[in-house]
Amino acid sequence: MLSERELSAAIGSTAYDPDGERIGTVETFFTDDRTGAPTWVSVSTGLLGRSSIAPAADAAFTDGRLLLPVRAQAVKDAPRLGGEHLSPDEERALLEHYRSSTEAAAAAAPRDEPAADAGMVRSEERLAVGTEQVATTRARLVKYVVTEEVQITVPVRREEIRVEQVPLDAADPDPAGESLLAPATPGGRHASDEPAPAGPGGGGGLPEEIVLHAERPVVTVEVVPVERVRLRTEVVHGQETVTGTVQREEIAVEEEPRHR
Fold first, then answer.
1. Is 43:23 a contact under the CB 8 Å cutoff?
2. Residue 161 CB neighbours (<10 A)
3. What are the structural domains, with CATH classification, of the chain?
4. DSSP letter string over 156-173?
5. Spatial distance between the Cα atoms of 9 and 148, rounded to a whole number of angstroms
6. Plot region of 7 (φ>0 → left; ψ -120 to 50 → alpha; else → beta)
7. I want to staple 156 with a disulfide (CB 3.0 to 4.6 A). Which of 43, 188, 215, 248 is the partner?
8. Which of 76, 74, 85, 5 is nearest to 40 (CA)?
């Protein structure tokens, strides 16, 4: 059923039949006194501008064109009626005319094909979904410094004092077995090569003091290249669910009494 906005927009437009044949110019609509729904439409047809009345209950207004459910010839052959209101007798005459026209068209149509006016076309909206490529993120390489603590275990050595008891006639130890940590004195001799000072007995003895040595870790930091980083793109496939609102037409049978 045409809305009030479509009724106003359709006046002055061109009316067409289901086959796309031009019928004429839309003049005015007749509405039901009880419901206010459009029931008939007056169309100016022919070169002389004669007015013919066609059914408007199933008319549709699309792209500036009024599509009527009856053929152009049936509208041109309709009874000539005038006035701003249709009487019950005039409506009966129009209904009888278009019923006869529909039956004649159905009889003239091939038996293996239904008549054009024998039914209605139901339409519905469907979602047409596609994809487009858009820029979403701009990436660039940025280098920054991350500070962290690193623990490394380093083996170290140290000297310790040990008392060794040997017989009197034992040979002196080999100088090659001396500690590797003892620093050498000028002239290439180690500190242990120096003669021990004479003890109270006059025959030599233990030194008054011994210097012990130990190793300690020395930490240095150096910058070395570890990896090469570069940018590249890859396509990741995924799925998204799209939700939309669509409309569809439904067909129902409307019954009206012959007399208002």
1. yes
2. 6
3. 4-108 (3.90.50.10)
4. --B---------TTPPPP
5. 76
6. alpha
7. 215
8. 85
Tokens of 121: 């076309």
Measured CA to CA, the distance from residue 47 to residue 26 in angstroms comes to 15
Q: Residue 124's beta-bridge partner residues?
A: 248
What was the pLDDT predicted at 224? Answer: 92
Q: Which of 14, 15, 117 is nearest to 70 (CA)?
A: 117
Q: Nearest Cα to 122, choosing from 38, 58, 183? A: 58
- Residues written for the chain: 260
Task: Express each pLDDT in 192-245 by its tens digit.
Answer: 445 544 444 444 567 788 899 999 999 999 999 999 998 888 889 899 998 989
Encoding tokens for residue 67?
Answer: 């599509």
| SS3 state of residue 42 | strand
Paired tokens of 83: 């006035």
pTM exceeds 0.70 for this model:
no
Mean pLDDT of the chain: 81
- CA–CA gap between residue 167 and residue 170 (Å, rounded): 5
58-101 tens-digit pLDDT:
899 988 899 999 998 888 888 887 677 888 888 888 899 888 88
Q: Do the beta carbons of residue 118 and residue 104 sit within 8 Å?
A: no
Q: Which residues contact 25 (CB under 8 A, 6 or more apart)?
A: 12, 13, 14, 15, 43, 44
